[in-house]
Amino acid sequence: MTVTTVMRSRDPGSKRMFEIVFLGTGGSIPTDNRNHPAIAIRHEGTVLIFDTGEDVQRQFIRARLGLNAPMAIFITHIHADHVIGLPGLILRMSLLGRRRPLQIFGPRELVDYVRLIRSSIGLGTTFETTVYGVKEGKLLERRGLSVEAFRVEHRGPALGYSVTFRRLTGRFHPERAEALGVPRGPLWGRLASGESIIVNGKTIRPLDVCDPPPPPLKIVYSGDTRPCDTLRRAAKNADVLISEAMYTSDRLDLAEERGHMTAREAARLAREANVKTLILTHYSPRYELEMGMPILEEARTEFDNVILARDLMRVTVRRSGIKVTEPATARGNGGSGDKTLRQHGS
Ligand SMILES: [Zn+2]
Ligand SMILES: [Zn+2]
Q: Could you list the active site residues?
């Protein structure tokens, strides 16, 4: 890994990248430095939120994420540390006059939870909210961006999520378009964005003038879980696996009893799934004094490309690799302040 100083990403909305913003990286109990679990993944102005732990609404503001953006929320499971921030976030959106509809996905129990908080504390909204209780499968698909849920092994029903972006075409070749008689102009744009067109009665397909699409960009979030095959399969060849790592191996007994992973288990799974970068989150407060270093060090004995998530850390993910921007106060991972780590993918 090399360390370079780079400014924050200038194109968070770019089509060819994701931006991950860690809003909360704590496990069970929030600490001075770490809020309850919550992660935002941005793509082309759409914000996908994964888990909504306590105080997610203020982390949202600190991270300068817009509250009126096209958005969907995905809850991994109904344990309090992953859902108690949801009413506050919804309230804030309403008080600030959000108009766009909001979809919320999670295990079936989530539907009862949202119904109860809405009726018991009179939580009305200025926007349409739809809550879906789901088991697994594709939940959202929008212009090449998709989110899929898969079951994991925790205490009670729990999901992990896979987020992918698939470009419909590869590089556009103007000379091929010209040779086929397609005039320069909007028709080129339509072909390049994956649409077939008809010129002089002849159908021209995107692949006639473009390279095949590159493999999709993929980010997978484990939620809380023991190591399991569904996670291993979902994470196969992922650009980034965001995984919980609650304990070091000397507390394997606790990990097994409470349905969590040790750092070693998470790192092994990342290696088996051939992921490019592993980002560990949701580690126990017992490692707080050491800033989580025992977790990071143990994981690095099994897998090289591993990073410890910090609250408000931002990670941009492109085909060429990832770029990590640590928050100003963070330590560890080999970078600090406004420095940025750069790791190359394949
Ligand atoms: Zn948890
Ligand atoms: Zn849990």
A: 81
**Interatomic CA distance for residues 260 and 244, integer angstroms:** 7
Q: How far apart are CA 229 and CA 76, in angstroms?
A: 17
Start and end residues for every CATH 3.60.15.10 domain found in the chain: 2-167+214-344
CA of 256 relative to ligand 2 center, distance in Å: 13
Ligand 2 mean position, distance from CA 23 (Å):
17
Which mean pLDDT values do the consecutive 10-residue runs of the chain (346 residues) have? 32 70 93 95 95 95 92 97 96 94 97 93 91 96 94 97 93 93 92 90 93 93 98 98 98 97 98 98 95 97 97 94 84 45 36
Q: What is the pTM of this model?
A: 0.88
Give CA–CA dist 278/301, Å, rounded. 13
| DSSP codes joined into one string, 282-332 | -B-GGGTTTTTHHHHHHHHTT-SSEEE--TT-EEEEETTEEEEE--TT---
Does the domain made of 2-167+214-344 have the CATH classification 3.60.15.10? Answer: yes
Q: Any idea which ligand is nearest the CA of 154? A: 2
Q: In terms of DSSP bridges, do strands 314-318 and 321-325 run parallel, antiparallel, or are they unpaired? A: antiparallel
320 Cα–ligand 1 center, Å = 32
**What is the distance between the alpha carbons of residues 301 and 299, in angstroms, rounded to a whole number?**
5
